[in-house]
Amino acid sequence: MNRPRKDPRAARAAHRVTGGARPRFDLARVPDAAPEDALSASGRPRRDPRAQERVALVPGTLRRRLDRAQRAPAASAAPPALAAPADAAPRLRVIAQPAYLVALVPDAPGGRLTPHDRQLFGAARLLADADGGAVLALVDLATDELAGAGADRVLTLPVAGYDPEAKALALDAVRAALDLRHMLFAESAEGGDLARRLAALSGEELFAGAESLSPKAVTRPAHGRRTEQRGAPPRLVSLAADAVAPHAGTVHEALPVAFAFPEPAGGAILAAEFIPADPARVSLAEADFVVSAGNGVTDFDAFRALVAALGATPGASRMVCDAGLMPRAAQVGASGTVLDARCYFALGIAGAPQHLQGVAKCEHVVAVNTDLHAAMIERAGLAIVADAQKVMPALIGLLAEEAGS
Ligand SMILES: Cc1cc2nc3c(=O)[nH]c(=O)nc-3n(C[C@H](O)[C@H](O)[C@H](O)COP(=O)(O)OP(=O)(O)OC[C@H]3O[C@@H](n4cnc5c(N)ncnc54)[C@H](O)[C@@H]3O)c2cc1C
Asked: Which of 108, 172, 174, 182 is paired with 356 by a 20 to 30 Å CA distance?
């Protein structure tokens, strides 16, 4: 320790008022600071609490009052000026002459990218950006989401509706013609099926269910997760969910690419379509859109009417199930069902931690609550601070109006 020692006598002498027979000291006066007093051992200017208090003292009051807001900030203590916010719009990145192409086939049900699809884009960018490549999205329907997700080029497949056989044939034609370095699929029901169909058609190796991916290596667990399989990434790879972060930061061109597809040969599947399930009977774990009632809902007839009008699956908080107002199977949360829904609409639910655990994976959360500070409102992307009993009939009216027009 080589801190300079304090010298109380010298400090007091600095306040001495000159003149007069008896020694007098003016402690309020700021003494001419000696250089070693003004700077600490580390070289930083010393804080003087007394001087700061004198600045904050409000004059003309009977009782001593301090106004800290008036304290003049020391030059060194002044907060650094905030940098002007950079342009908030993401940067457009153009890859005019790609060295190679990395293709991906998102599931995109109804033309909308799922979180798993966005992770697929993240993986494709990882492989493309390593060496000056570009990302080619092979989609059923081109949407404006693709540029932000990370697509440099977009090729629309000539497939209408659910026809995995025709889609696999179209993908095989693209694979053969464009010499793609990689083709990525989501390891989901649809993406996994397509990847296996393409592997069977083309005779190429497929690395299914990859959990980590880089330009040099791809890995997946094996033997009940006791071992790990690793290899150089082949052309066909299907990616497990939550293995790679989605792409963020730059917007890409999403330039449409023309491609002459061969005439579709008549396949074994004559007609195939999705038969939508009755949302009221779908299990909560599989539901896509859940509308839940909490303790703030008293009008359950309006709640049921709203659920039916929205075509959603009904859910509830534990409070409501405990009270016998909804069946136990409808309970959302840690001790109920953990949802995988795209949208969750919470009416009069506080958002207790056990309840929020059940909606952690939901992409969009909408909440209605009278309390602005409810945790459910904080979790929601869109919130209505109002009485649920008034919001429900208003929404039913709007939906009826929309259906009538
Ligand atoms: C071990 C354990 C496990 C649990 N597991 C679960 C679980 O799986 N799922 C679960 O849900 N809970 C679970 N809980 C219970 C949980 O802690 C909460 O008690 C419960 O979620 C609260 O339900 P609620 O939000 O409906 O009711 P409350 O906490 O009473 O909240 C009601 C909300 O409604 C709002 N409100 C009131 N009137 C209106 C109105 N007119 N219009 C709009 N809003 C209004 C209020 O502001 C409030 O935010 C568990 C608890 C424990 C201890």
From this structure: 108
